[in-house]
Write a structure and sequence with these properties.
about 350 residues; alpha/beta; Rossmann fold; 2 domains; four-stranded parallel sheet; about 35% helix; about 15% strand; globular
Length: about 350
Protein backbone atom coordinates (compact mmCIF):
# COMPACT_ATOMS: atom_id res chain seq x y z
CA UNK A 1 0.00 0.00 0.00
CA UNK A 2 2.84 2.39 0.77
CA UNK A 3 4.14 1.95 -2.78
CA UNK A 4 0.73 2.83 -4.21
CA UNK A 5 0.41 5.90 -1.99
CA UNK A 6 3.87 7.09 -2.98
CA UNK A 7 3.06 6.57 -6.65
CA UNK A 8 0.08 8.89 -6.17
CA UNK A 9 2.29 11.60 -4.68
CA UNK A 10 1.87 10.98 -0.96
CA UNK A 11 4.74 11.36 1.48
CA UNK A 12 4.79 7.99 3.22
CA UNK A 13 6.82 6.95 6.24
CA UNK A 14 6.71 3.59 7.96
CA UNK A 15 6.99 2.40 11.55
CA UNK A 16 7.65 -1.32 11.23
CA UNK A 17 7.27 -4.11 13.75
CA UNK A 18 10.75 -5.30 14.68
CA UNK A 19 11.26 -8.90 13.62
CA UNK A 20 14.97 -9.34 14.29
CA UNK A 21 16.04 -8.33 10.80
CA UNK A 22 17.28 -4.92 9.72
CA UNK A 23 15.71 -2.69 7.07
CA UNK A 24 17.55 -0.45 4.64
CA UNK A 25 14.32 1.17 3.43
CA UNK A 26 14.61 4.94 3.82
CA UNK A 27 10.89 5.14 4.50
CA UNK A 28 11.28 3.23 7.79
CA UNK A 29 11.58 5.89 10.49
CA UNK A 30 11.18 3.66 13.52
CA UNK A 31 10.49 0.18 14.86
CA UNK A 32 7.95 -1.15 17.31
CA UNK A 33 9.42 -3.61 19.80
CA UNK A 34 6.64 -5.87 21.03
CA UNK A 35 6.42 -6.25 24.78
CA UNK A 36 7.98 -2.84 25.47
CA UNK A 37 5.69 -0.17 26.91
CA UNK A 38 8.32 2.45 26.07
CA UNK A 39 8.36 1.36 22.43
CA UNK A 40 4.55 1.37 22.27
CA UNK A 41 4.46 4.99 23.49
CA UNK A 42 7.28 5.99 21.13
CA UNK A 43 5.43 4.42 18.20
CA UNK A 44 2.35 6.51 18.94
CA UNK A 45 4.46 9.66 19.00
CA UNK A 46 6.14 8.81 15.69
CA UNK A 47 2.72 8.29 14.13
CA UNK A 48 1.53 11.59 15.59
CA UNK A 49 4.09 13.42 13.43
CA UNK A 50 1.90 12.74 10.41
CA UNK A 51 -1.55 13.83 9.35
CA UNK A 52 -3.06 10.35 9.21
CA UNK A 53 -2.00 7.00 10.66
CA UNK A 54 -2.77 3.80 8.77
CA UNK A 55 -2.67 0.83 11.14
CA UNK A 56 -2.46 -2.69 9.71
CA UNK A 57 -4.23 -4.97 12.17
CA UNK A 58 -3.67 -8.70 12.49
CA UNK A 59 -3.83 -10.47 15.84
CA UNK A 60 -0.43 -12.09 15.35
CA UNK A 61 1.49 -8.90 14.58
CA UNK A 62 1.51 -7.03 17.87
CA UNK A 63 2.63 -7.87 21.38
CA UNK A 64 0.44 -8.72 24.32
CA UNK A 65 -2.42 -11.19 24.60
CA UNK A 66 -4.05 -11.45 21.16
CA UNK A 67 -1.90 -8.51 20.08
CA UNK A 68 -3.68 -6.14 22.46
CA UNK A 69 -0.73 -3.70 22.58
CA UNK A 70 -2.17 -2.19 19.41
CA UNK A 71 -4.99 -0.79 21.57
CA UNK A 72 -2.46 1.35 23.46
CA UNK A 73 -0.80 2.45 20.21
CA UNK A 74 -4.07 3.72 18.74
CA UNK A 75 -5.09 5.12 22.11
CA UNK A 76 -1.96 7.31 22.07
CA UNK A 77 -2.79 8.93 18.73
CA UNK A 78 -3.84 12.55 18.41
CA UNK A 79 -4.42 12.31 14.65
CA UNK A 80 -7.08 10.55 12.57
CA UNK A 81 -6.44 6.87 11.99
CA UNK A 82 -7.48 4.23 9.49
CA UNK A 83 -7.36 0.64 10.71
CA UNK A 84 -7.03 -2.04 8.04
CA UNK A 85 -8.51 -5.21 9.57
CA UNK A 86 -6.92 -8.25 7.94
CA UNK A 87 -8.75 -10.77 10.13
CA UNK A 88 -12.35 -10.76 11.34
CA UNK A 89 -12.87 -13.96 13.27
CA UNK A 90 -16.13 -15.87 13.03
CA UNK A 91 -15.88 -17.19 16.60
CA UNK A 92 -13.49 -14.91 18.52
CA UNK A 93 -12.65 -15.39 22.15
CA UNK A 94 -14.01 -12.67 24.45
CA UNK A 95 -10.61 -11.01 24.53
CA UNK A 96 -10.14 -11.16 20.75
CA UNK A 97 -13.56 -9.56 20.39
CA UNK A 98 -12.61 -6.83 22.85
CA UNK A 99 -9.39 -6.03 20.97
CA UNK A 100 -11.11 -5.54 17.63
CA UNK A 101 -14.04 -3.62 19.08
CA UNK A 102 -11.69 -1.35 21.04
CA UNK A 103 -9.57 -0.38 18.05
CA UNK A 104 -12.66 0.04 15.87
CA UNK A 105 -14.14 2.40 18.45
CA UNK A 106 -10.99 4.57 18.51
CA UNK A 107 -10.26 4.54 14.77
CA UNK A 108 -11.63 7.17 12.43
CA UNK A 109 -12.29 4.54 9.76
CA UNK A 110 -12.03 0.75 9.51
CA UNK A 111 -11.15 -0.89 6.20
CA UNK A 112 -11.87 -4.53 5.41
CA UNK A 113 -10.94 -6.27 2.18
CA UNK A 114 -14.00 -8.36 1.37
CA UNK A 115 -17.77 -8.15 1.67
CA UNK A 116 -17.66 -11.27 3.85
CA UNK A 117 -15.41 -9.42 6.30
CA UNK A 118 -17.68 -6.37 6.27
CA UNK A 119 -20.78 -8.41 7.03
CA UNK A 120 -19.04 -10.39 9.74
CA UNK A 121 -17.68 -7.24 11.38
CA UNK A 122 -20.90 -5.23 11.25
CA UNK A 123 -23.22 -8.06 12.27
CA UNK A 124 -21.03 -9.94 14.72
CA UNK A 125 -19.18 -7.14 16.56
CA UNK A 126 -20.21 -4.00 18.41
CA UNK A 127 -18.88 -1.49 15.88
CA UNK A 128 -20.27 1.59 14.16
CA UNK A 129 -21.10 0.33 10.63
CA UNK A 130 -20.76 3.89 9.30
CA UNK A 131 -17.03 3.62 9.91
CA UNK A 132 -16.61 0.41 7.95
CA UNK A 133 -15.48 0.56 4.31
CA UNK A 134 -14.70 -2.34 1.98
CA UNK A 135 -11.69 -1.92 -0.31
CA UNK A 136 -10.84 -5.09 -2.17
CA UNK A 137 -7.34 -6.50 -1.78
CA UNK A 138 -5.06 -5.09 -4.47
CA UNK A 139 -2.35 -6.92 -6.37
CA UNK A 140 0.64 -6.16 -8.53
CA UNK A 141 -0.49 -7.23 -11.99
CA UNK A 142 2.45 -8.44 -14.11
CA UNK A 143 3.02 -6.55 -17.34
CA UNK A 144 3.31 -9.84 -19.16
CA UNK A 145 1.72 -13.11 -18.13
CA UNK A 146 4.33 -15.79 -18.74
CA UNK A 147 3.57 -19.50 -19.16
CA UNK A 148 4.72 -21.84 -16.39
CA UNK A 149 8.35 -22.90 -16.46
CA UNK A 150 8.86 -26.26 -18.17
CA UNK A 151 11.61 -28.06 -16.33
CA UNK A 152 11.47 -31.58 -14.96
CA UNK A 153 7.75 -31.34 -14.29
CA UNK A 154 4.98 -29.00 -13.10
CA UNK A 155 5.51 -27.09 -9.86
CA UNK A 156 2.82 -26.78 -7.22
CA UNK A 157 3.47 -23.67 -5.14
CA UNK A 158 2.45 -22.55 -1.67
CA UNK A 159 3.94 -19.34 -0.31
CA UNK A 160 3.56 -17.03 2.65
CA UNK A 161 4.58 -17.05 6.30
CA UNK A 162 4.94 -20.65 7.43
CA UNK A 163 3.33 -22.12 10.51
CA UNK A 164 0.63 -24.46 11.83
CA UNK A 165 -2.72 -24.08 10.12
CA UNK A 166 -1.31 -23.64 6.61
CA UNK A 167 -2.32 -27.19 5.62
CA UNK A 168 1.10 -28.06 4.20
CA UNK A 169 0.72 -31.53 5.71
CA UNK A 170 -2.24 -32.26 3.45
CA UNK A 171 -0.41 -31.48 0.24
CA UNK A 172 2.66 -33.50 1.23
CA UNK A 173 0.39 -36.50 1.77
CA UNK A 174 -1.19 -35.91 -1.64
CA UNK A 175 2.25 -35.84 -3.25
CA UNK A 176 2.71 -39.46 -2.24
CA UNK A 177 -0.33 -40.39 -4.38
CA UNK A 178 1.19 -38.69 -7.43
CA UNK A 179 4.46 -40.64 -7.49
CA UNK A 180 3.31 -42.90 -10.35
CA UNK A 181 2.46 -40.10 -12.78
CA UNK A 182 4.54 -40.14 -15.99
CA UNK A 183 5.85 -36.69 -15.07
CA UNK A 184 6.04 -36.21 -11.32
CA UNK A 185 5.09 -32.78 -10.01
CA UNK A 186 7.24 -30.85 -7.57
CA UNK A 187 5.87 -29.10 -4.49
CA UNK A 188 7.61 -25.89 -3.44
CA UNK A 189 6.85 -24.23 -0.09
CA UNK A 190 8.25 -20.70 -0.19
CA UNK A 191 8.39 -18.27 2.69
CA UNK A 192 9.88 -17.63 6.08
CA UNK A 193 8.48 -19.01 9.32
CA UNK A 194 5.99 -16.67 10.98
CA UNK A 195 7.91 -14.52 13.51
CA UNK A 196 5.64 -15.52 16.41
CA UNK A 197 5.91 -19.19 15.51
CA UNK A 198 9.68 -18.82 15.21
CA UNK A 199 9.92 -17.16 18.62
CA UNK A 200 7.82 -19.84 20.30
CA UNK A 201 8.89 -23.03 18.53
CA UNK A 202 11.81 -22.19 16.27
CA UNK A 203 11.75 -24.14 13.00
CA UNK A 204 9.89 -27.11 14.50
CA UNK A 205 6.99 -26.88 12.03
CA UNK A 206 9.22 -26.63 8.97
CA UNK A 207 11.43 -29.47 10.19
CA UNK A 208 8.39 -31.64 10.91
CA UNK A 209 7.10 -31.15 7.37
CA UNK A 210 10.49 -32.04 5.91
CA UNK A 211 10.48 -35.21 8.02
CA UNK A 212 6.94 -35.96 6.88
CA UNK A 213 8.06 -35.73 3.25
CA UNK A 214 10.94 -38.11 3.98
CA UNK A 215 8.68 -40.64 5.68
CA UNK A 216 6.17 -40.46 2.82
CA UNK A 217 8.93 -41.09 0.29
CA UNK A 218 8.57 -37.74 -1.48
CA UNK A 219 11.53 -35.81 -0.08
CA UNK A 220 12.93 -35.50 -3.61
CA UNK A 221 9.69 -33.83 -4.76
CA UNK A 222 9.07 -31.48 -1.81
CA UNK A 223 11.33 -28.50 -1.16
CA UNK A 224 11.38 -25.47 1.12
CA UNK A 225 12.69 -22.02 0.25
CA UNK A 226 12.89 -19.43 3.04
CA UNK A 227 14.48 -16.72 0.88
CA UNK A 228 13.18 -13.17 1.10
CA UNK A 229 11.61 -11.97 -2.16
CA UNK A 230 10.67 -8.50 -3.29
CA UNK A 231 7.62 -7.94 -5.49
CA UNK A 232 9.35 -8.63 -8.80
CA UNK A 233 11.08 -11.82 -7.66
CA UNK A 234 7.90 -13.10 -6.01
CA UNK A 235 5.96 -12.46 -9.21
CA UNK A 236 8.57 -14.39 -11.17
CA UNK A 237 8.30 -17.29 -8.72
CA UNK A 238 4.51 -17.42 -8.97
CA UNK A 239 4.62 -17.32 -12.75
CA UNK A 240 7.11 -20.18 -12.81
CA UNK A 241 4.55 -22.43 -11.11
CA UNK A 242 1.83 -24.47 -12.76
CA UNK A 243 -0.66 -24.36 -9.87
CA UNK A 244 -0.88 -22.37 -6.63
CA UNK A 245 -2.11 -24.42 -3.67
CA UNK A 246 -3.66 -22.74 -0.60
CA UNK A 247 -4.69 -25.64 1.66
CA UNK A 248 -5.44 -23.71 4.87
CA UNK A 249 -6.96 -25.77 7.68
CA UNK A 250 -9.47 -23.09 8.69
CA UNK A 251 -12.44 -21.77 6.71
CA UNK A 252 -12.54 -18.66 8.92
CA UNK A 253 -10.32 -16.42 6.80
CA UNK A 254 -12.06 -13.50 5.07
CA UNK A 255 -9.23 -12.20 2.90
CA UNK A 256 -6.12 -13.65 1.31
CA UNK A 257 -3.40 -11.60 -0.31
CA UNK A 258 -1.75 -14.79 -1.54
CA UNK A 259 -4.94 -15.78 -3.38
CA UNK A 260 -5.25 -12.38 -5.02
CA UNK A 261 -1.62 -12.33 -6.11
CA UNK A 262 -1.92 -15.83 -7.56
CA UNK A 263 -4.96 -14.92 -9.63
CA UNK A 264 -3.36 -11.65 -10.76
CA UNK A 265 -0.40 -13.69 -12.01
CA UNK A 266 -2.75 -15.82 -14.08
CA UNK A 267 -2.24 -19.07 -12.24
CA UNK A 268 -4.86 -21.74 -11.46
CA UNK A 269 -5.55 -21.98 -7.74
CA UNK A 270 -6.59 -24.92 -5.57
CA UNK A 271 -7.78 -23.50 -2.26
CA UNK A 272 -9.72 -24.23 0.90
CA UNK A 273 -13.30 -23.01 0.53
CA UNK A 274 -12.99 -19.81 2.55
CA UNK A 275 -15.46 -16.93 2.59
CA UNK A 276 -13.07 -14.56 0.86
CA UNK A 277 -12.45 -17.01 -1.97
CA UNK A 278 -15.94 -17.91 -3.08
CA UNK A 279 -16.44 -14.97 -5.38
CA UNK A 280 -12.91 -15.13 -6.73
CA UNK A 281 -13.08 -18.84 -7.45
CA UNK A 282 -16.51 -18.56 -9.01
CA UNK A 283 -15.53 -15.81 -11.43
CA UNK A 284 -11.81 -16.20 -11.94
CA UNK A 285 -11.11 -19.85 -12.50
CA UNK A 286 -10.10 -20.97 -9.01
CA UNK A 287 -11.07 -24.32 -7.52
CA UNK A 288 -12.08 -24.72 -3.91
CA UNK A 289 -11.58 -27.79 -1.77
CA UNK A 290 -13.21 -28.51 1.55
CA UNK A 291 -10.56 -29.08 4.21
CA UNK A 292 -10.32 -32.78 5.01
CA UNK A 293 -8.16 -35.07 7.03
CA UNK A 294 -4.91 -35.77 5.14
CA UNK A 295 -5.95 -39.16 3.78
CA UNK A 296 -9.00 -37.71 2.02
CA UNK A 297 -7.20 -35.15 -0.12
CA UNK A 298 -5.63 -37.49 -2.67
CA UNK A 299 -6.89 -35.82 -5.83
CA UNK A 300 -5.09 -34.21 -8.72
CA UNK A 301 -5.38 -30.40 -8.92
CA UNK A 302 -7.88 -29.14 -11.47
CA UNK A 303 -7.72 -27.65 -13.97
CA UNK A 304 -4.65 -29.59 -15.04
CA UNK A 305 -1.64 -27.35 -15.67
CA UNK A 306 -1.48 -28.16 -19.37
CA UNK A 307 -5.12 -27.21 -19.90
CA UNK A 308 -5.19 -24.08 -17.80
CA UNK A 309 -3.74 -21.80 -20.51
CA UNK A 310 -2.66 -19.27 -17.87
CA UNK A 311 -1.11 -17.01 -20.47
CA UNK A 312 -4.51 -16.38 -22.02
CA UNK A 313 -7.83 -16.96 -20.29
CA UNK A 314 -6.61 -16.99 -16.68
CA UNK A 315 -4.47 -13.97 -17.36
CA UNK A 316 -7.42 -11.92 -18.49
CA UNK A 317 -9.35 -12.99 -15.44
CA UNK A 318 -6.47 -12.04 -13.21
CA UNK A 319 -6.44 -8.52 -14.57
CA UNK A 320 -9.96 -7.98 -13.27
CA UNK A 321 -8.43 -7.59 -9.82
CA UNK A 322 -7.71 -4.03 -8.72
CA UNK A 323 -4.02 -3.06 -8.85
CA UNK A 324 -2.31 -1.71 -5.77
CA UNK A 325 -2.38 1.87 -7.03
CA UNK A 326 -6.18 1.61 -7.32
CA UNK A 327 -6.32 0.53 -3.68
CA UNK A 328 -4.19 3.55 -2.80
CA UNK A 329 -6.60 5.83 -4.69
CA UNK A 330 -9.51 4.61 -2.59
CA UNK A 331 -7.44 4.88 0.58
CA UNK A 332 -6.65 8.49 -0.15
CA UNK A 333 -10.28 9.31 -0.87
CA UNK A 334 -11.24 7.62 2.39
CA UNK A 335 -8.78 9.81 4.28
CA UNK A 336 -10.56 12.91 2.98
CA UNK A 337 -7.49 14.47 1.37
CA UNK A 338 -5.76 14.04 -1.96
CA UNK A 339 -2.21 13.43 -0.82
CA UNK A 340 -1.93 13.09 2.96
CA UNK A 341 1.44 12.23 4.47
CA UNK A 342 0.81 8.77 5.89
CA UNK A 343 2.55 6.42 8.30
Amino acid sequence: MSEGLRANGSDVSVVRVADGSSSSDARVIGELVNGSATSVAATSELLNESDIAVIQHEYGIYGGVDGDEVVDIIGGLRIPSIVVAHTVLKDPTPHQRWVLEAIAAMASQVVVMSEAASQRLCLGFDVDPRKVTTIGHGATVPRRLAPPARSDGPTLLTWGLLGPGKGIERVIDVMASLRDLPVRPRYLIAGRTHPKVLAADGEAYRNARAEQARLRGVADSVSFDASYRDVSSLTALVQSSAVVVLPYDSTDQVTSGVLVDAIASGRPVVATGLSSRRRASRHRGGHRRRPRRPGCAGVSPAPAPDRAAPGRDDGRRGRAIGPTDGVADRGERLSGSGTPPSR
